[in-house]
From TrEMBL:
It comes from Nocardia huaxiensis. InterPro entries: P-loop_NTPase, T4SS-coupling_protein, TraG-D_C, TraG/VirD4. This is Type IV secretory system conjugative DNA transfer family protein. Residues 685-727 are annotated as: Disordered. Its main location: membrane.
Length: 727
């Protein structure tokens, strides 16, 4: 043999049974053209690995045959970080008498014993190896005469004549010889710190292999030159005949379902992707299978297929999001992050923003006295009816308790009135004007006087004004309770009370801004956080639709990252349709949540169907795990429930196609940049409000005159004015 063997790393699937091993090697044993195959089981301080050595010209055929007949087997090049090391001591193992072969029925126990011996407490730079060379194939044959006793000595045969084998042994030999097999040789290799340790480690390997020999056989070890095993040299004479059924005894492959030393457990399955991702910057993590360390990422273009992350608090979702957010900010992409706990926003500010991107960052923290303003009623050139559709969807979802048709009428008429009048007078109202419109008669008459040419709104307000003060109070009791409770809080008023904020969030994609919404539920309350976050999502959805006017928006992807997405995704359209349209307009949604039971059925179905990149962490809920397992045929619920912290199963989109499921370890958080204070101060200077002075409801004196000849803006709605008490 002049060519050198090429060794590859075998990743053997689990659980594995003897038949799984017999099938591919039985196929090779039946083919007279099968080339030399070298199989090794090696161990060092990092654990056990299985190698396959083949001559270069036969690699493709051998690899394909093994993978086709052993589903789940993955063959990868031997990594440079863990090369195949030379051993310093080697021995050839012989079975005497050779005709007896090995006990295939003991394969599971022998394999466990061999893995145990290989994973002795090895020191640094120590290595153990078991090497099996499969040479020329041997066809099965029938014996024409009775079998001689393989245990009979030469002296006994000369002195007493031919001795026949006992019936049980004869049957065993006849059965072995009737099967296809290989000429073979078995070797062990050792690198140890001292000769005494080499001897002790070698004895352990011999003891493990001895469990595979028949009762009347023995194992013999003969020292050979280490170069023989290091180079995988075939012998001049092949001392063994091994059938495919006997091979599992000596391969050291993890047979059975129990945990075995030095190899990956059955659960969670450490899968590798069927289609290898090529993205190198927007990395989610690295493959968890020991020795692989393959980066798994999703490109900005493939991210337009949307992404969902599922896992409980502390599972590692934030570290995945940090890595992707950092890559997007560094690439100059627009991004909105809604964080209900504020910690993720703090981490982004401290770790993800380079010095050259400071001017793009807008930090919205309701607890900051100089929080940037946000006015959802700043209609601008939009259709007021469309704007109100979005706001009404938010209020309907956030204020679901006690919401009825009369409450909706009040909100609809009030929002439409403020939106249309603000647009026509070119001075927008704010949501803080909503309670004032309902309770301040003088202010209300000034406002509704400017929609007198709108029959629907005029009719509603005419009916409203005809009610007695007590009837009006009863009619607006539910809306006013909700509005006063949440909109008039100081932190909310600072944010939503700025009629002309320094920055319009509708321009986030046009300006490539990074908007970080920090909603600390513990300080502002969960309902307030839900209201603010939902208003930002609604605004972002309208900004997404406006990208239809851009040339090639998909060439400039923008990202909407929403943690605890079930609290904030309240749109006037089906979210499934929204995700589909967002893709066309170059906006990718990254949605995170803790449990599937938190999600409304329609929202869950939309995300399952449209978020094609999925990142699944350990799930405590058996039902959630079973639901995800139905989406992942390669996995079962136990796999998902046994993931360690900062491990996940992911399926990414690569080149428009699914990678298949793979197990990963997530990245550690990026290091802190030391720019956090500078970033926050820059955001206040460029985009911040002016404290209390910025948050004022509109006064009667500030109402600018309006030409009554101006035409009403937007489409008309049919609205039946209602009075009386709310449901």
């Amino acid at each position: 043999m002049t060519a050198r063997l090429i060794f590859s790393h075998l990743h053997v699937p689990r659980p594995l049974c003897v038949e799984d091993i017999v099938r591919p090697f039985g196929r090779l044993a039946a083919d007279p053209n099968t080339p030399l195959v070298v199989l090794e089981c090696r161990a060092d301080q990092r654990g056990t690995r299985h190698l396959l050595g083949v001559l270069p010209e036969h690699i493709r055929w051998i690899h394909r045959t093994l993978c086709d007949l052993l589903p789940g087997l993955t063959i990868l090049p031997v990594g440079v970080e863990r090369p195949r090391a030379d051993v310093t001591t080697a021995a050839e193992i012989a079975v005497r008498p050779a005709l007896l072969g090995l006990l295939g029925v003991a394969a599971e126990d022998t394999s466990a014993a061999l893995l145990s011996a290989l994973n002795a407490r090895l020191l640094a730079n120590e290595e153990l190896a078991v090497q099996v060379l499969l040479g020329p194939t041997l066809a099965g044959r029938s014996l024409r005469s009775r079998v001689s006793d393989p245990g009979s000595s030469l002296w006994r045969a000369l002195s007493q004549g031919r001795q026949l084998a006992p019936p049980a042994i004869a049957k065993q030999i006849e059965g072995r010889l009737s099967l296809n097999g290989f000429r073979a040789i078995l070797r062990i290799g050792i690198t140890a710190t001292t000769p005494e340790r080499a001897k002790r480690l070698g004895s352990g390997l011999m003891g493990a292999l001895a469990s595979a020999k028949p009762p009347d056989a023995s194992l013999l070890a003969k020292r050979i030159r280490p170069a023989v095993i290091n180079e995988g040299r075939p012998p001049m004479r092949w001392p063994l005949r091994l059938t495919a059924a006997e091979l599992p005894c000596v391969l050291g492959w993890p047979i059975g379902t129990r945990d075995l030393p030095g190899v990956a457990p059955v659960h969670p399955k450490l899968l590798l992707p069927r289609r290898m991702p090529t993205e190198e910057k927007r990395i989610i993590g690295y493959t968890a299978l020991p020795g692989t360390n393959i980066p798994i990422g999703v490109s900005a273009q493939d991210s337009l297929m949307h992404q969902v992350l599922l896992g409980p608090t502390g599972s590692g979702k934030s570290t995945v999001l940090l890595a992707q957010i950092k890559a997007d900010i560094e690439a100059g992409r627009s991004l909105l992050l809604i964080d209900p706990k504020k910690q993720l926003v703090n981490d982004v500010v401290e770790r993800c923003i380079p010095v050259g991107e400071l001017g793009r960052v807008v930090i919205v923290d309701p607890e900051d006295p100089q929080v940037p303003g946000f006015n959802p009623l700043d209609v601008g050139d939009r259709d007021p009816d469309v704007v109100v559709d979005g706001l009404l969807a938010v209020f309907r979802a956030v204020f679901a308790d006690g919401w009825g048709p009369r409450t909706e009428d009040v909100f609809l008429a009030s929002l439409l009135t403020l939106g249309r009048v603000g647009q026509r007078r070119k001075e927008p109202f704010t949501l803080l004007d909503l309670p004032k419109l309902l309770t301040d008669e003088r202010f209300r008459r000034l406002v509704i006087g400017k929609v007198s040419d709108d029959e629907v709104l005029e009719g509603f307000w005419a009916a409203y004004n005809e009610l007695s003060p007590a009837a009006q109070a009863a009619m607006i009791a539910a809306p006013m309770n909700k509005l006063r409770r949440y909109l008039l809080r100081p932190s909310v008023a600072r944010l939503l009370g700025q009629a002309r904020p320094q920055y319009r969030f509708r321009d986030i994609f046009r300006d490539n801004k990074v908007v970080l919404i920090a909603l600390n539920e513990g300080l502002i309350g969960p309902i307030t956080a839900q209201l603010i976050g939902s208003l930002f999502v609604s605004e972002t959805w309208m900004a997404t639709l406006e990208r239809a006017a851009e040339d090639l928006p998909m060439d400039r992807p923008g990202f909407v990252v929403v943690d605890e997405c079930q609290n904030f995704v309240h749109l006037p359209t089906s979210f499934g349709d929204a995700l589909s349209q967002s893709r066309s307009y170059g906006v990718a949604w990254v949605l995170a949540h803790q449990s599937r039971k938190q999600m409304p059925a329609e929202l869950l179905e939309s995300i399952d169907s449209n978020a094609r990149t999925k990142v699944i962490f350990r799930l405590e809920s058996a039902k959630d795990a079973a639901d995800i397992a139905r989406l992942a045929p390669e996995l079962d619920a136990t796999d998902i429930q046994m993931l360690p912290k900062h491990h996940a199963y992911v399926r990414v989109v690569t080149g428009g196609e699914s990678s298949g499921w793979t197990a990963i370890t997530t990245l550690p958080p990026p290091p802190k940049t030391g720019l956090a204070d500078q970033i926050r101060q820059r955001s206040r200077e460029l985009y911040g409000g002016k404290g209390r002075a910025a948050a004022k409801p509109t006064t009667s004196a500030s109402m600018a005159p309006l030409d009554q000849a101006d035409a009403p803006v937007g489409r008309k709605r049919r609205m039946k004015p209602t009075g009386g008490e709310l449901p």
